[in-house]
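From the methods appendix. Each design record in this collection lists the tokenized structure first, followed by the designed amino acid sequence. Records were kept in a plain field format so they could be parsed without special tools. The example shown here is representative of the layout used throughout.

RECORD:
FOLD TOKENS (140 positions):
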């Protein structure tokens, strides 16, 4: 089982989803320069991930597509807690900063400019080698 990363006409195959997402982010950063965060969305219907760099709350550069293995469950076999047809899918926006305050300020500014966001499902907080990372899981 492998994942394929497609970015600017080039393909790369890696063994894990984490490696695929990291490679997508590195390719984008090498192309557009430093970014302040990442927009990562998953389309469960086709099991693809879409990664784009974010600078000052705005998407920058081309979108990298991570193609994963085919879904293993049919629509009938989905767990009962899966969103019903017509529900909006959960999405994730990632913000990275040197300090917790900087990271949370970026997330708050981004949310303030998005009135279409109907619900924030969860917040993830991670200390990384380069600073702090906040993940905002939302529905639009």
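DESIGN:
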């Amino acid at each position: 089982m492998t994942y394929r990363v497609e970015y600017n006409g080039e393909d790369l195959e890696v063994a894990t989803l984490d490696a695929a997402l990291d490679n997508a982010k590195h390719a984008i950063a090498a192309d557009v320069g430093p970014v302040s965060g990442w927009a990562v969305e998953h389309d469960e219907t086709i099991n693809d991930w879409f990664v784009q760099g974010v600078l000052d709350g705005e998407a920058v550069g081309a979108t990298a597509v991570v193609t994963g293995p085919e879904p293993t469950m049919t629509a009938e076999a989905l767990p009962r807690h899966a969103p019903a047809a017509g529900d909006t899918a959960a999405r994730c926006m990632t913000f990275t900063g040197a300090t917790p305050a900087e990271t949370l300020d970026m997330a708050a500014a981004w949310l303030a400019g998005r009135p279409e966001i109907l619900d924030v499902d969860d917040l993830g907080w991670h200390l990384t080698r380069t600073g702090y990372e906040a993940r905002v899981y939302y529905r639009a």
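APPENDIX NOTE: The chain has two helices and eight strands.
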